[in-house]
Amino acid sequence: MSSAHESRETPLLKVEGLSKTFLSGGLFARPQTVVALRDVSFTVDRGEAVALVGESGSGKSTVARILLRLERPDEGRILLDAEDILATEPLRASLPYRGRVQMVFQDPFGSLNRTHDVNHHLARPLLRHKRATSKDVREKAIDLLHVVGLEPAEEFIWRRPYELSGGQRQRVAIARALAVDPDLLIADEPTSMLDVSIRMNILTLLARLKEERRLAMLLITHDLASARYLADRVLVLFRGRIVEAGPADEIVASPAHPYTQALLESIADVGKLGAESRDVEPDPDELSSDGCPFAPRCPEAMDVCWKVDPSYRTVDSRRVRCHLYPEDGGGAGEAETGARTQAAGQ
Ligand code: SF4
């Protein structure tokens, strides 16, 4: 794992107090407020992979959409190299911003245009972002294919998406993201639509890129096994809020929050990447309004859980939002502070 925790430099990405509420319902339905994110804060250092883990509806994709400037948060700040992105960037991300923050999508079949060959997919960003000239664009596109392990690159460059397997398409999508030499790569469930047999290959490629290029990564996933393999730190999201944050190995080895424990138990075999998991989200109707949002499903729920929303507490190198652990004075927005401080001191 990277020693990114030891870094004392300004984090590449700093997300502070992100909150987002959506209004659901249509013409004939009663409008309802859906809280997607509540006061979410975290950082990602250069050369570090951070996994946002949670079931559907946990808010992890909303974080990605906000970072890609596809949504505007109701509250919060996003600092990229200390620059306040929400204050300086237009809602539709500028070309320089897209040159720094790139995305690898879940669906390798839908993310490439079937009518164009690999050369087109790579040449376009290389030229648009001025990472190549018309003279050396072919050479740079072939270099990218070498980087993502598509060999022989000189042959793959002329193939069209329908001539590639799912894993090969995902490698092209990763090469396309690398074409602009980004600082931050957001990978949204990058292996969930691939055969189990090739998921490990793609995660290994991402891990290598993180180390070799000192690339910062935000992995969006429901799968704790993938998170443990690729990420240095894990942030567990439940109902739009981080309920546990800390080193990936520690969280998977001994999850502290009952929701993280349920997530882990729902995976048939945590050693098996992308293993099927049961949905452990509660029914919205069961949510307690005042206390801990997980109380209706929590096997450990106590009286206080129904009345008081827990603050963050420090458990080993982690921050955990749960009454099972003694309070240590952490505030509601401090999901990371204690974990990072302790990890740095190890
Ligand atoms: Fe369970 Fe209570 Fe902890 Fe919530 S605060 S996760 S209900 S023990």
Give the helix/strand layout.
Layout: E1 13-24, E2 32-44, E3 49-53, H1 60-67, E4 75-80, E5 83-84, H2 85-88, H3 95-100, E6 101-104, H4 118-128, H5 137-147, H6 153-156, H7 166-178, E7 184-188, H8 196-213, E8 216-221, H9 224-230, E9 233-238, E10 241-247, H10 248-253, H11 258-266, H12 303-307, E11 312-315, E12 318-321, H13 337-344
Parallel strand pairs: 3-8, 3-9, 6-7, 7-8
Antiparallel strand pairs: 1-2, 1-4, 4-5, 9-10, 10-12, 11-12
Helix pairs in contact: 4-5, 4-7, 5-7
The chain binds iron/sulfur cluster.
Give me a quick take on this structure.
The protein has 346 residues and is α/β, with parallel strands linked by helices. The chain has helices at residues 60-67, 85-88, 95-100, 118-128, 137-147, 153-156, 166-178, 196-213, 224-230, 248-253, 258-266, 303-307, 337-344, and strands spanning 13-24, 32-44, 49-53, 75-80, 83-84, 101-104, 184-188, 216-221, 233-238, 241-247, 312-315, 318-321.
